Structures are given as C-alpha cells and as structure tokens.
C-alpha cells in the first residue's frame, strides 16, 4: 500500500525534470489550466491535489494535470467514505468487473513523485526513493465524475508485490514504478487493457534507497524537509552535539575568577566551633571574676 509520498517540485520545475529524464517532450507537454491546484509537498496525502501525467484521447498530447488522490468512479453520484487510493494490479488483471473496470481500459495516468513513505509492522516509517535520484513514475488510474453538483477528477496508484527487493522486508505491497520507456505504453489512450499493457505492471527492477525517518510523517499536517531526513543522520547530529568534551575543549574553556581560599571541611568547622565556645567561656569567667572582686572590696 502507498498512502503518502513526497513531491516538492513546483509545476515548472516538475515539467523541466520530466523533460530532462526523457519522460516527455517539453515543447509538446503543458499543464492544464487548473495547475495552481497542485501544491508541492513533502507530505502528499489522500484527497490532496497531486501531479499526474495523461494522454488526451482526441489530440494524443500528454498533459500534466492535478488530480484528487482518492478514486471516485465516473458513474458515482454521491460522495463515498470509501475512496480507494490504491488499486491492486492482480485485481485489475483478473477481474472483468468492478470499480476500476472503465478506467483501466480508457483512463490510465502517471502519478509523479520524488519518493514515498511506507510503514513496517512496528509502525516505523521509511522513506523510499530511486537510488539514481530520478523521479518515481507510478502507474495510476483516473476518472472524472460529477458528485453532488461538483465535477472532480480523481485517481489511484496501482500497486503490486515487491518481488525480492529490500522493500519486501517492510511491506508486501509497492507502487508500480514505471521506467520512462513504459510511460507511453501505459498512458496510451488508444489501447485497452491488453496483455501488452499488463506487462508493465511488475516490481521495480532498479535500485532503491530505503531508510528510516521520523514518526512526524504519521500525521498529514507536517510539511518540511525533516520528514525525509534519515533518522540515523538526526541521531548522529544529536550525538555530535552531546559528545563528551575533549582535553583541548577543556583547556579552551573560560573559567571565571574565584576565591582560591579552600573551603573548610565539616571536621574543621566542628573544631573551630569548639575553640570558639572555649574562648567565649573563658571571657565569661574573667568578667564574672572581675565583678566578684569589685563586690568584696566594697
């Protein structure tokens, strides 16, 4: 399952990067008029507008378009609490009916990310990205529906089994991550969901960079680079801050001037108290003797 991902690129930068990585022809690929709905984020979450790439059926031109993440079929007329964010590839291949039937044949798209988050059984979040730094191109399905008077285009990410990669130690489902050469195959608006299309629904064969991150991402509210900072790196930074002082550190410390006279110990204080008491008693005796002599002389 994929329930959270990261895409921090603004619309213009995202378009340029897709061109650099030979996913699209920049001169022929434009954003839809509502591109401002997409807001870059370290914490893209369900029902937010996320960046997608599709091919128009009439013009066959690729278009970048923000879509709501959480699938609503075109025939639905009311909002549902069940808006699936993922579609299992095995279900798409083996089922000739169901929620995604129309979309898998006619409305396939690419959902664009820099990386995604996944949690293991211990609820520890991990961040996963391509080791080569390229964009992640998730296979997706979309639909446009008019629900309670509002027209909205929604999408879901297609998932598959992770295969034998390191990711399988974390979770048993992973997004279908396409190579640039498979993008045209998947979003071809003239091709129905044939065996040729189904062949691209396979585990990613490239190398992934996987590491633990902060549990801050457990909430959909945070949105900062801290979310994708390796947890071990954070610990190292704290360790360096709290490391024991070295001899050189100690020699360079500023020590304020203090009274160098040593403080008396407890025994010294007791002895001093005894001496003081003896002195006081002696003085008292002398004074008493003086007054006694004065009285007798009278």
UniProtKB/TrEMBL annotation:
Q: Which Pfam families match?
A: SRAP (PF02586)
InterPro entries the UniProt entry points to: SRAP, SRAP-like
Q: Name one GO molecular function term.
A: single-stranded DNA binding
| One biological process term in Gene Ontology | proteolysis
Q: Would the keyword Protein transport be found if you checked this record's keyword annotation? A: no
> Which keywords label this protein?
Covalent protein-DNA linkage, DNA damage, DNA-binding, Hydrolase, Lyase, Protease
Name the SUPFAM superfamilies on file: BB1717-like (SSF143081)
Classify the source by domain of life. Answer: Eukaryota
Specify residue ranges for compositional bias: Basic and acidic residues: 250-280
> In its keyword annotation, does this UniProt entry include Ligase?
no
Q: Where is the composition biased (Polar residues)?
A: 286-298
Report residue spans for region: Disordered. 246-298
> What family classification does the UniProt entry report for this protein?
Belongs to the SOS response-associated peptidase family.
Q: This protein is called what?
A: Putative SOS response-associated peptidase yoqW
User: What is the organism of origin for this protein?
Assistant: Choanephora cucurbitarum
């Amino acid at each position: 399952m994929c329930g959270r991902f990261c895409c921090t690129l603004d619309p213009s930068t995202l378009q340029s990067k897709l061109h650099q990585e030979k996913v699209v022809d920049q001169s022929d690929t434009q954003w839809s008029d509502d591109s401002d709905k997409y807001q870059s984020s370290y914490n893209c979450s369900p029902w937010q507008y996320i960046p997608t790439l599709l091919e128009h059926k009439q013009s066959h031109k690729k278009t970048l378009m923000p879509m709501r993440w959480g699938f609503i079929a075109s025939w639905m007329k009311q909002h549902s609490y069940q808006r699936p964010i993922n579609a299992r590839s095995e279900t798409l291949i083996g089922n000739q009916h169901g929620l995604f039937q129309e979309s898998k044949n006619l409305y396939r798209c690419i959902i664009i990310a820099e990386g995604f988050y996944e949690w293991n059984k211990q609820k520890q979040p991990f961040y996963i990205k391509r080791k080569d730094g390229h964009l992640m191109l998730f296979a997706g399905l979309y639909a446009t529906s008019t629900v309670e008077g509002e027209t909205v285009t929604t999408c879901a990410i297609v998932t598959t089994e992770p295969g034998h990669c390191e990711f399988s130690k974390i979770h048993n489902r992973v997004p279908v991550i396409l190579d640039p050469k498979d993008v045209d195959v998947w979003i071809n608006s003239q091709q129905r969901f044939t065996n040729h299309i189904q062949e691209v629904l396979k585990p990613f064969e490239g190398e992934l960079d996987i590491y633990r991150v902060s549990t801050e991402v457990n909430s959909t509210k945070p949105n900062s680079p801290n979310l994708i900072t390796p947890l071990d790196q954070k610990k190292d930074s704290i360790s360096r801050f709290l490391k024991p002082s070295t001899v050189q550190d100690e020699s360079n410390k500023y020590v304020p001037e203090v009274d160098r006279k040593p403080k008396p110990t407890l025994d010294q204080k007791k002895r001093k108290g005894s001496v003081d008491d003896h002195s006081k008693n002696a003085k008292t005796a002398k004074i008493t003797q003086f007054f006694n002599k004065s009285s007798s002389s009278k």
